[in-house]
Amino acid sequence: MIRRSAILITAAVLSAVGLAIVVALPAAADWYGNRHQETGAYATGAEAKSARASVPRWLADEAESVRYSMRTTGGDRLLKATLPDERLPIACTTEPRPKAQEAALKEDWFPKDARGKATARCGLYYAYMDGTTLYAWQDNDDWLRAERAEPAR
Q: What's the CA gap between 117 and 126, in Å, rounded?
């Protein structure tokens, strides 16, 4: 009887540990992968630029419903904003088919298929318009190349 109890207790403990691993491991992986990612929502472009120095200066102050995500350990960025009209910001240049990089960051408010829709460059950002909604993202490798190209201050 004691042996049977020991086997049942061991099985119960192993089951509990296994369940804890199944639940905790994905949560830990998600935390580890996103621990250097910060996201914010702002009413206007002016508010976003005031709150974060890394929000691109070409974003119109009048932009509304701004969503911004950034990696704190590099140059990966995501941006979504509603603009006053269906035109890209003045600082953007349209390209027939820019060789856009894949957006490295993931957010539920940013399209997964953005790379194939890129029609413009806004500074270091790839971008496109969907009606009055601007979607733009910056790639870390592009950011690093630009950082190396700038003269030391």
A: 9
Helix (H, G, I), strand (E, B) or coil at 83: coil
* C-beta of residue 80 within 8 angstroms of C-beta of residue 86: no
CA 68 – CA 41 distance, rounded (Å): 6
Q: Token pair of 109, please? A: 């408010």
Q: How far is CA 19 from CA 27, 42, 89, 140, in A?
A: 13, 39, 51, 37
- pTM of structure: 0.75
Q: How far apart are CA 4 and CA 8, in angstroms?
A: 6
Note the pLDDT tens digit of each residue in 113-150.
Answer: 999 999 999 999 999 999 999 999 999 999 999 888 86
Task: Name the nearest CA neighbour of 135 among 117, 148, 153.
Answer: 117
